[in-house]
Amino acid sequence: MRTYEVMFIVRPDMADEDLDRLISTLEGNITTAGGTVKNIERMGKRRLAYTVRKFNDGIYVLFTVDGEGKLIAEVERRLRVAEPVIKFITVRTDEEQKRLDKVKKIRESRQRGRGAQAAAAAQQQAEAQAAGPETAPAAV
Amino acid sequence: MADETTQQPQQASSEGQQRQAGPGGPRGGGRPGGPRPAGAGGREGGRKYFRRKKVCKFCVEKIDSINYKDVRLLSGFVAESGKIVPRRLTGVCTPHQRRLTEAIKQARNIALLPFTGRS
């Protein structure tokens, strides 16, 4: 099961309920084909960097989908055919996520090692200070 | 003969001066243009080898993921004309430059960044 991000642009003169209907249709397609929609984000109306099909603004929508490759091909086909969708891009994100998790884990383990060392050193100092003025330092 | 020899060097010197004065413009313009990119790239000898050791912004700030969605981050590495800035000018390290390029091209495809803008 791969994770994909599908971002598409809808024409700006679309009504809210039409947009909702389109989104729920796509969601239904994905679910019936065996995928899961993890997240839907409506990024609102934005100015496009260049004119697409004679539009200068567009409503951006982002889907995070879990599924197989064939499912995504089907989604793309529907997006291509859908009239209000003027542009779309699909990015595969599971490999990138794996790499990020690995980097984060390495960083955390390094910090934990350093943190444990620092905590142990602080503890030793505290014990030495506490016991020193009295008698012999406590067994560390 | 003696007169010619004395005249020739005068003529040569005047011509030489004229020749220097004529293309003195492009030659003078060429010279500051020459060592400047060499100084930044660290190529020519005579200048310091690595001028201003530029560090990779992503390595320093530990930015892991370069996403096509954060236009603000990406637009710092794109020229006004929309071109991707080479890494010898921004100081980005190679793996990050590669990821950055991929993200910029994805952003261009989804109209978050222009392909070319009022250059």
Describe the structure.
Chain A has 140 residues and is of the alpha+beta class. Chain A is 49% helix and 34% strand. Chain A has a four-stranded antiparallel beta sheet. Chain B is an all-alpha fold. Chain B folds into two domains: 2-41; 57-109, Ribosomal protein S18 (30s Ribosomal Protein S18), CATH 4.10.640. Chain B is 56% helix and 0% strand. Classes of the chains: A alpha+beta (140), B mainly alpha (119). The interface between A and B is medium-sized, with 17 and 14 residues.
Number of strands of chain A: 4
CATH topology call of the largest domain in chain B: 30s Ribosomal Protein S18
List the chains of the largest interface with their residue counts: A-B, 17 and 14 residues
Structural class of chain A, please? alpha+beta
Percent of residues in beta strands of chain B: under 5%
Quaternary structure of the protein: heterodimer
Shape of chain B: globular
Per CATH, which architecture of the largest domain in chain A? 2-Layer Sandwich
Percentage of residues in helical conformation of chain A: 40-55%
CATH fold call of the largest domain in chain A: Alpha-Beta Plaits
- Residue runs with pLDDT of under 50 for 5 or more positions of chain B: 9-42
Report how far apart the termini of chain A are.
52 Å
Q: What is the global morphology of chain A?
A: elongated
Major β-sheet strand ordering of chain A: 2-3-1-4
| Share of β-strand residues of chain A | 25-35%
Total beta-strand segments of chain B: 0
